Amino acid sequence: MRGRRTIGGGRRLLWHVMFQAALVASHHNPVLMTVANRLCAAGKPRKVIITAVARKPVTAANALCKTRQKWTPQPA
Question: For 63-73, b where at least 16 C-beta lie within 10 A, e where not — what string?
């Protein structure tokens, strides 16, 4: 396949919630803001940036569940 790719399936309501949370986090969370700014500087489309920002907390939560650890925020 050539050109833009699309994703089908998934949980629509969960995706909308994660998208909105990532949109806010990319403006207010310092860690996720640096990720968004780096991708923006690389010339990525806005939706790709928001999707990448939305995946960051999900992967962190999965890692915490896998290792059975509690969340400890990093000092700023």
Answer: eeeeeeeeeee
